[in-house]
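Q: Sequence in, structure out?
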Amino acid sequence: MKKMIVAALLASASGFVSTPASAAQQIISFGGVLDYGSVWGTSPFGTPGTQLGGKAYSVVMSYDPTLFANTGTCGSVPSTQCNFTFTAARPMTATFTVDGVSQEYTWTSGEFYLSAGGNDQFGFNFDVPAGSFSGSFGDGNSFYPNQGSVNTPIFSDFTNLAVTGGTFQFNPNGFGFGDSPSTLSASYTAGTTGAVPEPATWAMMILGLGLVGGALRARRRQEAAVTYA
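A: Exactly. Output:
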């Protein structure tokens, strides 16, 4: 009888196993050789006095763009610009690698912006809590958001970035560096939702629960019969 109960429980529980949802992810990256940089305090990239200029580096920025739905301003003032603000609920993470050493930082305050209409740019500005991190990319009219729209960028443009040329600076406590990278690349991965049981699976789960209930009732009757015999 115990084996029947266990088997029925396993059969019913197996239908509830599903794949957890995964968040959408936008990756923005750039790299090259640092124009300048130095260490004067605590830093993962060297001891005080270390010069970072001339060292190879990469920056990989990551965030979930779906968290910004209906939170930004597009086409308002000015009509050619979009702004999206990061918060604790919508953080941005960046991994800096300098001369083979990597360190991850997270910001809960800052913004991205897109501008179009003759001065096309993608830019960012972050501060809290990881320190000042800012940059701008785009070379005049070569960057057209919205896959061809010249005037008004929209939210989806942040997931379709294609810009060349720019500058950035990173200045946390203890060190700082910057560069003028020639390109910026972006990739977007859509999120997936957890598996939803099909009708046949629901039927199997209901049947399994029914078998469990029936087995438990039968066991109680047997125990009662033995008690009063």
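The helical segments are 2-14, 145-148, 199-228.
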